[in-house]
Design brief:
The chain is an all-alpha fold. It has six helices and no strands.
């Protein structure tokens, strides 16, 4: 059996698709809204860092509750009020971060200003105040327990994640994407 030559001219092979792991992914369909055009890696990384900061904050909260319960430092009402405030703040940060991930420039600015600046100040003011009261840095490390080490590590991760997320949200690729996301779609 003979085959007739193809009637269309033979061209170079079409370009190969990129592996799926490199494709920018929109948010899952179960969440309303999309990120079209897809968010650049800097925005996706900033989003992941905001979630990391919230997870570190939740972990710190758990450690603080454990410490308060074992030391008997706080009443149940104080603990409940503190927990309610933290749940509200962490929930708001996650919701605003989702909005930022979808292209909301106002959400990006809110994240940079409120948890980025004010939140970071609230995390570092106590240690700075302790040092300015004349305590030596070495005194902070003298009688550390396991909870203290975990808390310090979590706090360091928390602050680093916030600072890195803010920096990534304002990289040139992120700025261009937020500008494009504001333009009306045709």
């Amino acid at each position: 059996m003979t085959h007739a030559p193809e009637s269309r001219p033979r061209h170079a092979d079409p370009p190969r698709p990129r592996p799926r792991s490199q494709d920018p992914r929109p948010l899952p369909r179960m969440l309303p809204g999309t990120d079209e055009p897809p968010a650049p890696a800097t925005v996706r990384a900033a989003f992941a860092l905001w979630l990391t900061a919230v997870a570190a904050g939740v972990f710190e909260t758990v450690l603080a509750v454990i410490r308060a319960m074992t030391d008997g430092d706080a009443s149940t009402g104080d603990l409940a009020g503190g927990l309610a405030l933290r749940v509200a703040v962490y929930s708001a940060v996650v919701l605003v971060a989702v909005r930022m991930r979808r292209g909301g420039n106002g959400a990006r600015l809110a994240l940079a200003g409120v948890p980025g600046v004010l939140g970071t100040l609230s995390l570092v003011i106590e240690p700075v105040r302790w040092l300015t009261d004349g305590h030596a840095l070495g005194a902070a490390f003298r009688d550390l327990g396991a909870v203290d080490v975990l808390f310090g590590g979590s706090r360091a991760l928390h602050v680093a994640a916030v600072l890195a997320a803010v920096a990534l949200m304002f990289r040139p690729s992120a700025n261009a994407w937020f500008r494009a996301a504001r333009r009306p779609r045709r």
